[in-house]
Amino acid sequence: MIRHVHLCLTCGVALAAAAPAMASFAVPPNAPGQYAPRDECSAQEGGAQFLAALKAAIKARDAKAFADLTLPDVVLDFGGGGGREAVLEMLGQGSAKWKELDKIMALGCAWDEDNSALVLPWFFNQDLGDADPFSTMVTLGSEVPLMSRPSRRGWVQKVLNWQLIHVYEVEVDDPGYRTVAVIDSNYEGYMRIASLRSQLDYRLRAEKSGGKWLITAFVAGE
Q1: pLDDT for residue 7
Q2: Contacts of residue 26, Cβ cutoff 8 Å, sequence gap at least 6
């Protein structure tokens, strides 16, 4: 079973219209560092060995070694694509998917106890409460600046530490920035999109088969 949630950067309302609505986000306290990556998988039987093999395959850019860690019917998209040969093709020379896997490996691993699965990154398996998953993202890092303007020329209003933010559909002069509000606070401003991650971004899931942890899905999107 593949657990996934929705997230959209093009959903929402104008910042000015939504400013008073921060209290409507019924989510757990958005404390600094609450959504920092964690490793819940190494404690599972065989989990540490699986993660080590996965890390080695990705570091070496070894498509065969990665494919050896997948189920024969591994899912690669929501249109029915998958399988070992598709994995080898996807990770061919110069594939951009390796960089996506690099990012995933740096963001922790969650233990999905309900479905007995390992989930990377850790953030993907977290319950965001009633926060709208179509417009909620997490800040990537312990010192991510919330700017007063969509530019490095703005001043830093607050430094965020692995916290949830709400992204609005508001055009700004610099396409590298997004208009945002910090959930569970009155802070609003602008952040670099490179400093944010969606739950709909790439994620990897592994389940036990024949006594071994094997990748059942590597997907992005809804």
Answers
A1: 31
A2: 129, 130, 131
Q: What share of the chain is helix, strand, coil (3-state, %, to 5)?
A: 25, 30, 50
Per the CB < 8 A criterion, the answer to whether 74 and 87 are in contact is: yes
Contact by Cβ (8 Å): 50, 213: yes
Q: Report pTM.
A: 0.84
pLDDT in tens, 7-44: 333 333 333 333 333 334 567 789 999 999 999 999 99
CATH superfamily of 129-198: SH3 Domains (2.30.30.40)
What fold, for 47-125+202-219? Nuclear Transport Factor 2; Chain: A, (3.10.450)
Q: C-alpha distances in angstroms, 82 versus 16, 77, 79, 149?
A: 44, 7, 9, 43
Residue 8 C-alpha from the chain's centroid: 13
CB 136 within 8 A of CB 35: no
Spans of the chain, pLDDT less than 70: 1-26
Backbone angles phi, psi at 51, to 5 degrees: -65, -35
